[in-house]
Design goal:
single chain, globular, four-stranded mixed beta sheet, 380 residues, UDP-N-acetylmuramoyl-L-alanine:D-glutamate ligase, alpha/beta, disordered N terminus
Amino acid sequence: MSPTHTIAGEEPEHLTRAARRESLSDPLAALRTPDDPPWDVYLTGTVFLDIVFTGLGAAPVRGTESWARGMGSSPGGVANMATALARLGLRTSLAAAFGDDHYGEYCWDALDQGEGIDLAPSRTVPGWHSPVTVSMAYEGERTMVSHGHEPPPGESAPAVAPHARAAVASLTPGVTEPWIAEAARAGTRIFADVGWDDTGAWDLAGLTDLRHCEAFLPNAEEAMRYTGASTPRAAAHALTEHVPLAVVTLGADGAYAVDRRTGETAEVPAIAVAALDPTGAGDVFVAGFVTGTLAGWPLADRLAFAGLTAALSVQEFGGSLSAPGWSEIGAWWRRVQSVEEQDKAALARYAFLDALVPETLDRPWPLRRAVPTIGFRRSR
């Protein structure tokens, strides 16, 4: 699609609350049975309070004061992916430590009441200060400063994960997480991502839990460093010697995937957008790909959907703030179809959305989420 026209920019209690969230469609509705696990996806990790300054004309300069035209706050860290999954209609369970300060209370309420995410495996830790990240967005980039302390041992995640269709694990070189093997043995499908290897070893043998995973989703640079391949596509094929499904994100060039079990490959170009803030885009991509995989979509459709959700997210500020729901996806799909000179071949790539998006919308495109703050004091 051309840059001009691609973008105009008895149940658990929490599922009752989830009816208030943005997700207007259940992508797994046709697959659900009474014997299903209670959760579609399980996550564990660190929740940050993200404070995002927006409207900066340029990067802050040492020794000067910069004023931002806007500011928002939201749960960040692993909460970005949890929110993205929940807004796409997946029943999401999160294990994380929350401080007993106002920041932790705000993040808990935003995820529990606001997004309908199950926090039963999570814990509030007395006397522990919530991790905080301050993000300054400008010129499509971001600069971040974070502060936090490790939670006391055993407070961040239970030893045994709740039963779920899938789990998303962030792998750390040299670290083994027992819950991953246990969950895989129980039939949970494990999707893994990975961060930058600060040790510089880039040794796949150090990712010991990769053998329990169904899919691995590194970016191009990570994939090439771990495999020694000279191109991202060659790296994806090399990774299938270690995991059944390799998905390599290519940034502005889209994504490429190889499924060892079927021999299938797929490549989907990125959607050209005017990016405001890339915070959380990788998490949103993974959430979109997990959604499509659990729904049983073809590999190319999963890649296209993941790329679309990530593209929609970077047009807004913040991580969990910007994760799209089905209303945003539906509005985008109707908008691009309404452009007379739209590339028909590009539209055909997303035709599978016809069966997924809401038939009617009560809000016009472009959609803008209200940017929340920590909150105002209630009148007494």
